[in-house]
Amino acid sequence: MKNYWDQGISFEEYVRIGKERLENPSSQQETEYRQYYELGLQRMDRTLKKYTPDQEQLKELASKNFDGKILIISEAWCGDASATVPALVTFFKGHNDVRIFLRDSDKSLINQYLTNGTESIPKVLILDKDLNVKNSWGPRPKYGYELLMKHKADPETYPKDNFYNDLQLYYAKNRGKDAVQEILELL
User: Fold this and answer.
1) Nearest alpha carbon to residue 5 among 107, 92, 81, 109
2) Contact 103, 66 (CB under 8 A)
3) 2-139+176-186 — its CATH code?
4) pTM listed for this prediction
5) Which of 125, 136, 139 is nearest to 69 (CA)?
6) Tens digits of residue pLDDT in 114-142
């Protein structure tokens, strides 16, 4: 895990790389994902402007005496990540070190934390002070997962476009609060 932590980058570097891939794609995937990079960067910017850490959640964090680190497996093009990663980074800032590991640069880490057999992101690894994995979370809060299950159960009456729209509305209104709470419960 130390190698993955050492390869992790800051949130600022994560955003810089996302912008670079948007403006100068260097692979076929980056070219195909340009619209997702653009959306992801816009959503991250909105989250950064709107998100304020909840004081009760900060008190809960303090009461946990968590002295570990947070490693987030992510990519800037991901819709779920664009809603949660900026909130998590902001929440833990000044309390616990947070780094981001780019999923597409090395699949060996995400392949240890698959979600129902998929490389879904973001995946948050809660590490103790010695970099052992204490717990993991992701790729979306429980409510987002419920929306996904509603779509999968009956895609004809709840099509993918409706699911994506409802999920982004939820993220815009919730502003990371549920994701932070679910992660606090795992500390």
Assistant:
1) 109
2) no
3) 3.40.30.10
4) 0.95
5) 125
6) 999 999 999 999 999 999 999 999 999 99
